[in-house]
Amino acid sequence: MKKILVFLLALTLSLSSFAQDPRLTEMVEIAQVEADNGNVQLDVFSMPIDGQKTYYLSVGTMGIGTEIVQIDVDPITRLFIPLGNTLEEAMESLDKLKEMAKSEPGTTTEIDACFAPLIPNGNLEKVKVVSRKLLLSRSLEFCIEKEGYVRATYIPRSDLGAIASSVKFYKKIHPKEK
Are 72 and 3 in contact (CB under 8 A)? Predict the structure, then answer.
């Protein structure tokens, strides 16, 4: 409950600054999957960045702490991964992420991503992506080190597959969209 109240308060305070942002009105949600009982929400959406339509994957909010213990305290700031400028590029990028999740546990890769409140701001930074395996499930860990703390979130491979399938379905029902 406390988390929801903090989120609503922060959203209310920041809404006025985002209300003037024309990118919000041009933001188009393509697909959405809730993971981990609603704590992590995957979204694929498009929005204009510098006049160019760009597709993003939002992997949700990131915990803060150490490499072992993560606490979710920031419900506003999210991690956005640019997928490309066309739906085809977005689907290819999602397939690459699914392949990363299949790789040997502990395999580490760096990708560019945007860590920003509510919507991507175009400022990209390097994010470490680590393939993890726990019992029978595989996942990807997205990790950023900031100010001596580790910010991380974990996305199951099955959820990556679900979001990729949703994007493919979206493309079938919107064949003219590029």
Answer: yes
Rounded-to-integer distance, Cα 64 and Cα 132, Å: 18
Measuring CA to CA, which residue among 147, 160, 131, 144 is closest to residue 63? Answer: 144
Parts of the chain with a pLDDT under 50: 16
> Full-prediction pTM beyond 0.85?
no
| Helices and strands: H and E segment counts in the chain | 4, 10
Give Cα separations from 141 to 14, 42, 70, 131, 156 (angstroms). Answer: 29, 14, 12, 6, 9
Amino acid identity, position 121: N
| 105-157 tens-digit pLDDT | 888 899 999 988 888 887 889 999 999 888 888 888 899 887 778 888 888 88
Beta bridge pairs of residue 132? 139
How far is residue 32's CA from residue 79's CA, in Å, rounded to a whole number?
15
Rounded Cα distance between 151 and 71, Å, is 9
The Cα-based distances of 114 to 67, 120, 135, 157, 169 in angstroms read: 20, 6, 31, 21, 26
Cα angle value 18/22/25 (rounded, 5°): 90
